[in-house]
Amino acid sequence: MNVLVVGANGKIGKQLVKKIQETEGLTAKAMIRKAEQVSYFEDLGAKTIIVDLEDDVNTITKAFDDVDAVVFTAGSGPSTGPDKTMLIDLDGAVKTIEAAKQANVKRFVMVSSFDTTRQAIQEAPASFSPYVAAKHYADIWLRDSGLDYTIVHPGMLTNDEGTGQVQIAEKVEPNKVPREDVAEVLLQTVQTDATIGKAFQVISGNTSIKEAIDSMK
Predict the structure, then answer these.
(1) Of 95, 102, 129, 92, nearest in space to 113 by CA
(2) Which residue ranges does the record assign to the NAD(P)-binding domain (predicted)?
(3) Which of 11, 18, 29, 78 has its CA 20 to 30 A from that of 40?
(4) Does the predicted model carry a pTM greater than 0.85?
């Protein structure tokens, strides 16, 4: 299976590409924005393609050549304003969904925000609400796309070493989760058809990631 990782140069994306390359039967294709980012992925043996999420749908569709599944890990980042949040986290996600449809790539895994309900938008701090709103509508677009989607809602992300132990459910209490563990959840998710059509939250817990994902079967 060839997996396109959108936002591959991000903290989760980099770890996911590495994990894909270490998994038999999987090959990563890293979608990145800058030529200077290529060497990291080439050293892993991964394919790369330079495409910006602010490009048009037809340009983004080119990234889907010889791809079986896509994992969207991109985000505008905490240092940007609401304008970039809307252009990347909402419009970039929507354009990637439309590109997948054009390329007839059915499997689509989305990294979202922990809680993207309407209530979460209303209760979020003013600086964070545009991000939650962007993810809210991107999630809706994906659900309505007809693609074989899974939406992953991670808790508060940390750079701690992964434990390989998580709690996964449609609704869990807010807590932290290492990015490394989220990358492993994404790796397992894209290989597990039982997660298709589902959305779940993930935090650190006491269940192995494989067991947690397998429990959805």
Answers:
(1) 129
(2) 7-191
(3) 78
(4) yes
